């Protein structure tokens, strides 16, 4: 298994000296190459779950393993993309993408070559010398994705990565995510609020609900793979199949939120 989560619980201290349990009894096994989309009402703990897998919160109960190794800190085996791009404005795209490799001590020539490869993967070949202020919001998220990919992680963790983009760019970026997934075969955990986005990308949909958050839906979804077939793409969103799946998912979300 690429990712296993066994009996995960996450608690935070509250201002009155108590403890708030945000997630409880979360168990999950994700085989390599799946594109798992995580949905749920605001505040149900999606980011908390993703952050725990990223290693940002080592004080969880239970066990999180990536390729069998226990997660206790951030690591190069997990690439993270957040809603805000968090690029260093004083660095160009190559330098932003290669930043982690610099810390690892890779020589500049190798860093630049790998950064260029990662930029090409996200459709930004030849744009490496651009500063972040010269790039559009969508392009900056592409750079963030390249930065997450450059160390060849075991798993990509994406927390509402397209949430801040305009509708058209968002649709284009959904296709980019699918293209990168197809070409790299990466395992992806993707948080979104968008029902269409969730169904369009996913090979598996997970819905979190309640307080503490728990998994109320965990089922395979065929659209992530079907939309990759030649000539299909976004047109799949207007099929009766897709509409029916969207309605089912919407009902599950409302039920969970109730
Ligand atoms: N470091 C922290 N300390 C205390 N409480 C926290 C911390 N991080 C998250 N929380 C709380 O955990 C709950 C879940 O937050 P989280 O951001 O995981 O939800 P979410 O489902 O991702 O929400 P949204 O969809 O709005 O982004 C919230 O009530 C939040 O206030």
UniProtKB/TrEMBL annotation:
Entry similarity comment: Belongs to the ABC transporter superfamily.
Q: Which Pfam families match?
A: ABC_tran
Q: Which GO terms describe its molecular function?
A: ATP binding
Q: Which Gene3D superfamilies match?
A: P-loop containing nucleotide triphosphate hydrolases
UniProt protein name? ABC transporter ATP-binding protein
Q: Write out the entry's keywords from A to Z.
A: ATP-binding, Cell inner membrane, Cell membrane, Membrane, Nucleotide-binding, Translocase, Transport
Sorted alphabetically, which PROSITE patterns does this protein's record hold?
A: ABC_TRANSPORTER_1, ABC_TRANSPORTER_2
What SUPFAM superfamilies has UniProt attached to this entry? P-loop containing nucleoside triphosphate hydrolases
Question: What is the scientific name of the source organism?
Answer: Ancylobacter oerskovii
ABC transporter domain mapped to chain residues: 3-235
